[in-house]
Here is the input.
Amino acid sequence: MDSRGVRLYSRNQLSLEERFKPLVNALQSLAHEAVLDGEVAVVDEAGKAHFQLLQNYQKTGAGQLVYYVFDLLYLDGHDLRGLLLVCRKALLQQIISNLPHVVMSDHIEQHGVAFFNLVSQKGLEGIIAKDGSSASREGQRSSSWLKVKTHRRQEAVIGGFTQPRGGRKNFGALLLGVYEGDELIYIGHTGSGFNERDLAEIRSKLEPLIQKVCPFKKRPVANAPVRWVRPELVCEVTFSEWTADGVLRHPVFVGMREDKAALLVQHEKPSPPTNSLKDSQELNEKEASPRQVTLRGSRKALGHKDQEDISVDGHVLKLTNLNKVYWPREKYTKRDLISYYREIAPVILPYLKDRPQSLHRHPDGIEKESFYQKNVDHQPAWVKTIKIPSDSEQKEINFLICQDEATLVYLANLGCIELNPWSSRLGMLERPDYLVIDLDPEDTPFEQVIEAAIAVRKTLERGGAEGLCKTSGKRGLHIYVPLGARYTYDQAKQFAEIIARLVHRKLPRSTSIVRNPAKRPKKVYLDFLQNRHGQTLAAPYSVRPSPGATVSTPLMWQEVKKGLDPGKFTIRTLAKRLERIGDLWRPVLGSGIDISECLDRLQHGSED
Here is the structure.
């Protein structure tokens, strides 16, 4: 809540203002700039929350809408996240009073067991046990806040459904899974808990996600014909217990979880009690998401001087012209650029290490002249370089290699707004780790780029391959396919061309494989020629020299849809996104696909 009004977001940043307008109206009367944390529920006449009432509230208006606020993160210019929880709640109590639909979630101290027993008697879901002295830790699981359930529940990703039998319509059962790392693990199926409306609504949501490829790591055995779907939808089930082989016993459907990103759904294990700081740290490490990242935003910020000497990785760097404005419209400076790269260094470095860099330098900002530099000289002795014979000239080029945070800061100080690494690494420079299909929109609407990206994904899936998508940081999208350094650049380019041609055949009016822009007006260019030795693209998490200080940002596939705005991913917003959903790009450095197997599937499989 601020001068621009009230905005409601789910945990994965879905806007909820339209869905819960009464809450927006109620919160508009709060005379403070604030960030609240809480949970929306719809309760019946007895005051008991019902998940289905919440899911259907926008359509039916049935039940009483309540926003239970349990934390205050920001108030009138002050970041409160470092305060003790009990202090934040004391401030919260002072500003939340007599607002319709808004209730402060109170707490009791010490009598946790008795409180839990009372909750159990009343048939409620459970309690949250919180450490009153804890700070707010966004995007991190912590033993400071523990969910204690009276009934066992599990969020699950829908990976398929069986055909209905008897008099049932739409589907028989949902096949469920959870993520372990980057793999979807089957945990059982549920065919109970649905009413007729549930069956119809869920089937309508599943229909556009149907695919031929099983999304689970191991293909499950079903008792009826199965239709596989892209694993994007999340539901919640109750169950009695886990079997020895990791399958839910007696799962019953509770409702859909539109607020939950599929990639974040994991096996929910009961948290053991912790008796010491050491125990808590060990628990946090075990609970950490495979995509969870550690940023360095807590380190000492740069000062306000135009020049400053800092120590990074044991090296002293002399930073210059820190007050120079690089983005005139936003007034972002060179200092802002360096600060961004320092903060996200642990996340971006795995995609830069051991890769020759093509430098694109903007010493005076994005609106002034820039230049490219491959051959570097006069660099500090600790900056790693490698000499590579030039393809076009009879000489060697001295390429810079970004191995550590110190080199990353050095590059930013040179005015390298964007980072452009090779697709291959030292020791295997002729074999790329991934192939790229660059969707270049030129003068086309962004909706056409999204359409092309979805078509690329479906084509890859027909071949049994999974692509990763990121924004270019401008108006395009980049789709990467892991290769595991198993193929040459020519082989990668040939396979990328096949995919591009198949997509173009499917979307002949809106896409093109012709390189000359004049010969492809109003069409998205399916650029497969990026897969050449020495060719570079902006790295994931690289800033781009564009208005807004946009960043080339990895996406979840469920984000690649109408309404996607690449402009919202900037040096000001990326750190929070990383803390919330982690690093989505890690699979690109995996073992890679089998091109022969993919080609065989594409040749013998049928098109959607």
About this structure: The radius of gyration is 26 Å. The longest strand covers residues 64-75.
